Amino acid sequence: MDIRRWIGGALAMATALAAGTVQAQDIKIGFNGDQSATAVAELGTAGRWGFEMAIEDINKAGGVLGRKLVPVIRDDLGTPPKSIQNVTELIDNEGVAAIVGPTNSGNALAFMHIPQQKKIPVIVPIATATEVTTRYAKQAQNFLFRISMVDREQVALIVAYAVKASPTKKIAIIADSTGYGQGGIKDATEVLALHGIKPVAVEKFGPKDTDMTSQLSKIRGEGADTVIVYAIADGTAHTLKSLDKIGWAPITLSTWGSQSSVLPRTAGQKLAERLILTASTTEDSNPRAKALGERIRKNYPTMTTFACAAQAYDAVLLLAAAMKAAGTTDGEKVAAALEGVTGVQGIVKTYDKPFSKTDHEGLTVADFYLARWKGSLVGRYEDAVTKTFTPADFKK
Amino acid sequence: MVVLLQALFSGLALGGIYSLVAVGFNITHGTTRTFNFGQGEFLVAGAFVSVSVLLLLAGKGINAPLDAIDVTPTVYAVSLVGGTLVTAVLGVMLYFTAVRPFAGRPGLAWVMSTIGFGILVQNTALAIWGPSPVPMPSPLGNDVIRLAGAGFVPQEILVLVVSVAVLIALDVVMRRTRLGKAMRAVAENRNAATLMGIDVSAVVVGAFVLSSAFAGLAGLLVAPITTASVYMGLTLALKAFSAAIVGGLDNPRGCMLGGFLMGLLEALVGLWHAELREIAIFLLIIVVLAVKPEGLLGRRRVEKV
Amino acid sequence: MKRLHLAGVVAAAAFVILAPFITGNGFHLKVLFMIGVNYLAAVGLNVLVNHTGQKSLGHAGLFAVGAYTAALLTTRFEWSPWLAFAASGVTAGVFGALVALPALRVAGPALAMVTIGFGIVIEKIVSEWQDVFGGQAGIYGVVSPSVGGTDFGPREWVWFTGALCLVAHLAVRSLLRGKHGRAFRAVSHAEIAAESVGVSVYRVKVLAFVVSAITCGFAGALVAQQNQYINSDFITFGLSIFFLLIVLFGGSSPAGPLLGAILLTLLDAFLARWPHIQHFTYGLLLLFALYLMRDGLSGAIGALARKVVPSLGVPPALPTAVGDWQLRAGEVASPDRPLLEARGLRKAYGGVVPVNRVDLDLRTGHIHSLIGPNGAGKTTLINLLSGIVAPDEGSVVFNGRPLAGLAPNRVCRLGLGRTFQNLKLFVDMTVLENVEVGLHAHLDAGMWHTLWATRTAVREEHEARDEALRILDFLDLRDKANERAGSLPYGLQRRLEIARALATHPRLLLLDEPAAGLNPQETGDLIDVIGRIRDRGITILLIEHHMDLVMKISDHVIVLDRGEKIAEGPPSEVQRNPRVIRAYLGDDDAAEDDLPPGIATAGGHG
């Protein structure tokens, strides 16, 4: 019951008004992302709980630099003006040392100039648009980092598989018309071109559509044997259903969004198992992941995308490690330290120098694997094709 | 051809949903000149209440996932009653808090208050069920039925059959029964209806009950196709509203026609360019209204001078 | 009131200038900036929604037009940011006019639909047409205005936005206080009446849409340029609702949008940490605010203030000596010439033919009466003459000019005024304002003058008020000048309609049952009034059932029956005409009692 959450909110308001609960020496870390207003709110909510759990764990282990971490959580309702306002508030009013967020790429692109100017490190745990970490890459210090499955990296993996597995090399792309889907089309087309392949068809559908039969029929008409689906989980599920409707079963590939349990429940077990998708981590990856999943479900029982929680969790661990390494919470020094942290044992992996001066993507194609639904769980997927992968296959 | 057939069929199924909601707009607009701008959230309420009823009947917790085995036609029918009942009650609450204080007053007050009521409903649902979409199995299973090369999901057929049946029943009730005649009388002339001994306020409350129940029913019917989501309301209700306006807000048959037209149009434009669908549809609506402001089957209202 | 306003403006300006010095907190400055942006969007929307009565649920689209104009011009075409900012208002204004085009034909829910459709189409265009608008990835590097080479910082933005808001406030305020403001309210009350006194409903609606579009476009450009970035996620249906909420919650007075913007922006910033409470607060606000405060927050505060300080509610004193009302020279047609000639007028509604091939000749300086049994087609004939209904066949030539195809406001401007059988006053405006609306077509000051309240505009307003007072004097309504038109007794409301029609400077005045509902005393007064109007050189055509009145004052009587003219001539002839008697009696031998007094009984017995 989420009712507890907003009763909790009311209590939080009371305590905040009572003031003084936040000690001057505490370190505030901000979280800003959509948790209530659009279809990606479920991802943001998962991320938010991962974020809170990490802070809880760090504080239990004695905090950072002898100080306690304090979470400051904001909901941007999925709209850029609100996101900009929240980030300004977190930095200028709350005085946070770092920010984790947001949920959707549009908001990240809209607010990122603020932390960049104010020299506050941001780790993006969910939004996947490539430009988030590249826009300021040429500046003296880029304050935007990411622990998420950036589009370009997962596309590299998907396309590598598609190119090897497709008998006729006739590959098609279908994506939803949101920024996420459109970014995916762009990346997939470019990466395919690196392999010397032009997609035989590129089709789009609306984010709330439930019938993609016409687009898929067109794709089939072009003779494709492999389809890359770039959409959030419901869209991918409906694409699978529509494939079933027109009685066609090409090789179907999609992104990490399909790890959401919405997929098998919407498309049904049988169809879901047809899909090959990318993953960074799943709840059964390791015991820490399993434990985190269970803890979060106590607060958020309907969590569908564990990866968001795991990535947000790791983002906080990395920030804490960087602060320790820098010996300060000063944004500029923490950002520099982030580029050198080692040995941080996170949920997704153990981070050894995950970032460099020029590359702020903490997770890359090397950390990803192909996966597939099996029963109610997503498991690693391997076949004859994946066994032949070499690093040279992952063009990007 | 197969592609066209496929598009026509899913267009009709979606059109059934739009029609149900659009007729709901007509019913309350006829009696009070207002309607619920937050109707989309009533679809959400209908869908989620029904999901909860199904979970209850399956002996599961409120946030547990539903499995196909939990949804038999019988329990689906029970949940349908539960969902429409709750939305009907919401309709009464809506009327007394958001509509009655403003009905008959010029301006936009009722638009705002009904949107506000919808926001409350949506966020109550968000507080109870959370932001994740809840997939709902169809009582008829998920196996594709093939017809002349085109495939349909059984739920689409169920949606079409139920919505057409309900709409025909409504049409008969409105034209043949005392209740329907009373409603039409109130729509035509409130004062005259009062003089004829019709209990106008009962009819008006009834209109909101009916309209809200239709929205709840539509939510439950559409949920197995789209998955139940706290955010599914706005788009569906906007399209249904467009359907009502294009068909003629003051004519129930016009609203039904508008709903099916809208569904078909969406499917057909989708054949051509899915991403241009909203642009094409709304431009078309603006053009239709510029030429025929009263809607396709609407009656032109002439101000008496 | 004037001093209060001046004090408010000075205080607001001082606050905007000083606040950035007092706080360096970026968040506080950001909130101030957002208040300015929201106010700017709302100040124009207030004109459209609260004053002109047009619903718009698509202003996010106009916000987008402004934002993307500034973004594209500074990034793709490298325009100066100042020029691009100015251009954003212009393009938004053009789009505003475009939205207004269907607004003449549709009203109510259909208008809401058109505006929703417009908003969604714009939202989809900026998210789908990625080559131009960048979709969700957006346009990065939008150039902010700069002074001396340095880009605006948070402080400069607050000052710049504050200055814009002040200018917008002053302009919109003088717009609303002048002839356009009256026209907006007239259109929102009674469109047909506004048309019939020479106000072009179409132009007024377009103007209101354009004003709201311009300020909304500027708001969009501010956001894009301040943030140096814009993408399609900024443009949502929710934004349109938010703008509408500000103006409805704030209320119609010029202070309304400011109150609304301040309160809702602060609420938005303060509640961000408790998203659930925020959603519920919005819901409750939407649901109950308008129930508790009919005219929003500013209306409620105003009412309270007037209760506490009664002197605030006292209207300004009006000048006393104003002189006698006369038509202007050149407006009086030379007497005893044909003023209006109608030939073969016909109008049919399906099988019903209320006017069937009627010829009409009205002579300057005469009082003509149009009589006939109920349903004879008298009102339809007047509607045909005044342009409210277009004839199927036939022609009307008025003062040498054909009236075919002219909108009612054009007909009125040619000198044809009218009143309505079912009163159509602008009930929420004062008696004086009702008459001033009638003068609308005779006020020449252009938009520029009204916006900045130039000396020309102020002088003209004073002249208009004086003339309106003379007209009220002429009709003995002077002491009611500051009362709400809707609060007058019925008989005075009828007379006010005549006063409003006189203000249009008619050569021909059409009165549709001016004595309906009047008591004998009032009817007597009316006879006197009509006579005095004729003496001012105004020709009159009146529809009346009071036969004694007709017979007493008419120079010429025209009788209609079932859409056809069956007789005309001097009263004494007409009342003896057997066809007329039969029309009133029917073909059977009806009882003499059924005759209206005056017909068949020469002289009439009251």
What does it look like?
The complex is a heterotrimer of chains A (396), B (305) and C (606). Chain A is an alpha/beta fold. Chain A contains 16 helices and 14 strands. In chain A, β1, α2 and β2 form a beta-alpha-beta unit. Chain B is mainly α. The mean pLDDT of chain B is 87. By secondary structure, chain C is an alpha/beta fold. Chain C has 2 domains: 210 residues, no CATH class; 257 residues, P-loop containing nucleotide triphosphate hydrolases (Rossmann fold, 3-Layer(aba) Sandwich). In chain C, 56% of the residues lie in helices and 12% in strands. Chain C has 24 helices and 14 strands. In chain C, β13 and β14 form a beta hairpin.
Q: What descriptive keywords fit this protein?
A:
heterotrimer, A: 396 residues, alpha/beta, Rossmann fold, 7-stranded mixed sheet, 5-stranded parallel sheet, B: 305 residues, mainly alpha, ABC transporter involved in vitamin B12 uptake, BtuC, two-stranded antiparallel ribbon, 11 helices, 2 strands
Looking at CATH, which topology of the largest domain in chain A would you report? Rossmann fold
Tell me the structural class of chain A.
alpha/beta
Number of domains of chain B: 1
Detail the poorly predicted runs of chain B. none
Mean pLDDT of chain B: 87
CATH architecture classification of the largest domain in chain A: 3-Layer(aba) Sandwich
* Strand segment count of chain B: 2
Instruction: Give the CATH level 1 class of the largest domain in chain A.
Output: Alpha Beta
Give the assembly state of these chains. heterotrimer
Main sheet: strands, sense, barrel of chain A: 7 strands, mixed
Overall mean pLDDT of chain A: 88
Coarse shape of chain B? globular
Number of helices of chain A: 16
Provide the gyration radius of chain A in Å: 21 Å
Considering DSSP H and I runs of 4 or more, what fraction of the residues of chain B is helical? over 70%
Share of helical residues of chain A: 40-55%
